[in-house]
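Per reviewer request, we include the raw input and output of the structure prediction for the construct analysed in the revised manuscript.
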Amino acid sequence: MASASSWTLEIASPVAAPRLFRAAVLDWHTLAPKLASHVVASAHPVDGEGGVGSVRQFNFTSGMPFGYMKERLEFLDADKCECKSTLIEGGGIGVAIETATSHIKVEPVTGGGSVVKVESTYKLLPGVDVKDEIAKAKESVTAIFKAAEAYLLANPDAYN
């Protein structure tokens, strides 16, 4: 059995942490089809009301290597802009990945703005190598937060 591996990423943003967290994390299933329609065809809650244990599904366009993914929220502290989720279906589970979790924290920085800290931990199926996939995953996560950032900068009253 393969051991767990991880990668980390930090993304600086001029947007305040609570706004960015609400838009890019908590409400991304609503914004993604609007802001990233080239990647996310649709998204919706599957189970729950957005709290711990809730599941949401993202359906991807044909340009993605998989058609959909479902993630379950394992931990949420909205006041601290922090959450942890587990990939439970789709998104390479059972094909290349045995398990995958993401821990996201959006922290305020001195002078305004925020920094997004992401840690993704995964266990690959035997014989699978994902060197290129890690770079793609980091690019995708960065694109999500930068799309939300652009939306929030263009809509200063959104997610206040």
